[in-house]
Amino acid sequence: MNAVEKVYVELSVVIGRSKMPINQLLKMGRGAVIELDAHQDDEVWLMANNVAIARGEIIVNEDRISVSVTEKISQSS
Predict the structure, then answer these.
(1) C-alpha R_g of the chain
(2) Within the chain, what is the greatest distance between any pair of CA atoms?
(3) Could you tell me the residue ranges of all domains in the chain?
(4) Which CATH superfamily is domain 8-72 in?
(5) What is the three-class DSSP state of 22?
(6) Separation CA 30–CA 19 (nearest Å)
């Protein structure tokens, strides 16, 4: 196994955002629904370790959900 195979990266997909008071969030239980400011065809953000690395679109194929990368975000140093 080479060194790259030992590196762990947390990947996240940000579909949308929502603002609410903390007391409302604390009252939520299992099955609660949070409305997002997003629509079905909106772009999503791909994050690696909480850093935006790309944008993409959601692809639904039967019972599978995927993300197709549409734009890589260059990181400035």
Answers:
(1) 16
(2) 48
(3) 8-72
(4) SpoA-like (2.30.330.10)
(5) helix
(6) 19
